[in-house]
Design a protein that fits this description.
Shape: globular
Strand order of the largest sheet: 2-8-7-6-5-3-4
Strand content: 15-25%
Radius of gyration: 20 Å
Helix content: 25-40%
Distance between the termini: 39 Å
Number of helices: 12
Low-confidence stretches: 1-7
Order of helices and strands: EHHEHEHEHEHEHEEHHHEEHEEEH
Number of strands: 13
Largest sheet: 7 strands, mixed
């Protein structure tokens, strides 16, 4: 049931005149100063080819995340690794959820894979239900996003453990995208908890505000899986600046905790403001909020140089759904005032 699919994304500041970008879910604290200093100090190293093993970076990830070195693969952002996973295993049948991040389906379709969608329901805040287990039997690979983009909701721990067990029983490869997990304040999955063939997908992009550097990584439950995926990418997929930035980011103290505190406070402010405007707001634990309204809000705000994400092209959503990133208070007030003006003017 491949059907038609759109692959647009937030963060397009190049084809439009954007002053305030609420369409890309990047940490409002920006790139840590320690990372910027490391990049400046490492400038001379840019003259060399990157380490194809990403050895220093992988050792730092292994120590921070409690993972085994040989089960870690670094890539040119999370999207690069999604494509490499699909290329490595060439699945025939895949299960993805709807709505969710479109790059899973795009990568699968590009390899000729048949894609089945598990549709979540608005009355459940677009959360997974127990009946997803019934869809796994016929799947070679399952993609989950936790917290899910564009909703920001987390998979219940008990259900996630059931899914992991089910995939192990039927031999399905399970990919769990945790690229936004740090924003929630919840503990990510421990590699030691995994059974079967599971891949945890994580990234520096969002939490450390470095999307332009492109840096993601995976932790595999099986070393053979990591090896297979590694050799499906080109040798120098992770640049010298990206590796330097990643190592420096992992040395930051208190940055994630500071981020979680800010996001929780500002997410509440934005959610309350949207509700006061009469919009339907969906519960989020991440650094973005999904809501629904009857105005062409993206076009109205664009006139003021404000970009938000129109979610009409997500499977399971339609016109009228929008996603906004949680920014700092100054920017959030600008957005709220612009929305209130749009509502007032009808």
């Amino acid at each position: 049931m491949n059907g038609s699919i759109s692959f647009s994304h937030g963060g397009d500041i190049y084809s439009r005149k954007i002053i305030y970008d609420f369409s890309a879910n990047i940490n409002p604290l920006g790139m840590p100063e320690g990372v910027k200093k490391a990049l400046i100090n490492g400038f001379n190293d840019f003259e060399h080819y990157p380490d194809t093993e990403c050895a220093k970076l992988r050792r730092a990830i292994a120590e921070r995340d409690g993972a085994e070195y040989e089960k870690i693969v670094c890539g040119n952002g999370a999207a690069d690794l999604i494509y490499r996973i699909v290329q490595a295993f060439r699945p025939q049948r895949a299960l993805v959820c709807a709505p969710t991040f479109s790059e899973y389906e795009r990568a699968l379709i590009s390899s000729g894979c048949e894609v089945a969608r598990y549709y979540t329901n608005i009355k459940d805040n677009f959360s997974l239900r127990d009946d997803i287990i019934e869809f796994i039997d016929s799947s070679d690979i399952v993609f989950l996003c936790n917290p899910n983009n564009p909703v920001g909701n987390l998979i219940q721990t008990a259900l996630l453990k059931k899914i992991i067990r089910k995939c192990a029983e039927c031999g399905a490869l399970l990919v769990i995208d945790e690229c936004f997990i740090e924003f929630t304040g919840e503990k990510p999955l421990s590699p030691a908890e995994l059974s079967g063939n599971v891949i945890l997908l994580r990234a520096f992009t969002k939490i450390y505000a470095m999307p332009g550097l492109r840096l993601g990584y995976i932790i595999c439950s099986q070393a053979d899986t990591a090896k297979k995926i590694k050799y499906c990418g080109q040798c120098w997929s992770v640049s010298v600046p990206a590796q330097i930035a990643g190592v420096a980011a992992l040395e930051e103290q208190g940055f994630i905790e500071q981020t979680v505190e800010l996001i929780k406070k500002e997410r509440g402010f934005l959610a309350d403001s949207l509700k006061k405007s009469g919009f339907e707001v969906f519960d989020s634990k991440a650094n973005f909020i999904l809501f629904r309204c009857g105005l062409p809000l993206d076009r109205i705000l664009l006139r003021k140089g404000i970009a938000i994400r129109d979610c009409f092209d997500y499977h399971g959503l339609s016109a009228g759904y929008f996603r906004i990133a949680v920014r700092n208070r100054e920017e959030n007030i600008i957005l709220v005032n612009a929305i209130n003006e749009a509502v007032l003017n009808g």
